Amino acid sequence: MGRLDAQALRGRLAAALAEVAADRDVLLLVAWAQLSCEEAAQALGIPAGTARSRLHRARRKTRAALGGSDPRIDGIDGEDADR
């Protein structure tokens, strides 16, 4: 994905993050702070299973808001890893 494509998705990504407010902290810790789901759970003081559920829900809602595009695979963050 080119720079222009990523910039076009930026507004949609911001809107998607606003839609997942309750689950956003886990998503951001995993996606941008590059913590594992277990590390994010520990940082937030929640059970690991709760963090995994929140992460799954946030990813699903974010993908839907982006029209099915997956930022981890489509190159917005430059990584293709599922931590």
- Rg, rounded, reads 13 Å
Low-confidence stretches: 75-83
Q: Kindly state the mean pLDDT as a whole number?
A: 80
Q: Quote the distance from N terminus to C terminus.
A: 21 Å
Largest sheet: none
Proportion of residues in β-strands: under 5%
Tally the beta strands: 0
Question: With helices defined by DSSP (H or I, 4 residues minimum), what is the helix count?
Answer: 5
**H/E series:** HHHHH
What sort of overall outline do the alpha carbons produce when their principal axes are compared? elongated
> What class, by secondary structure content?
mainly alpha
| Helix content range | 55-70%
What brief labels describe this structure?
disordered C terminus, 5 helices, 83 residues, mainly alpha
Fold and architecture overview:
The chain has 83 residues and is mostly helical. It has helices at residues 3-19, 24-31, 37-44, 48-65, 71-74. Helix 2 crosses helix 4 (48-65). The longest helix has 18 residues, at 48-65. The protein is elongated. Residues 75-83 have low confidence and may be disordered.
Topology:
Elements: H1 3-19, H2 24-31, H3 37-44, H4 48-65, H5 71-74
How would you concisely characterize the structure shown here?
This protein is mostly helical and about 80 residues long. The protein has 5 helices and no strands.
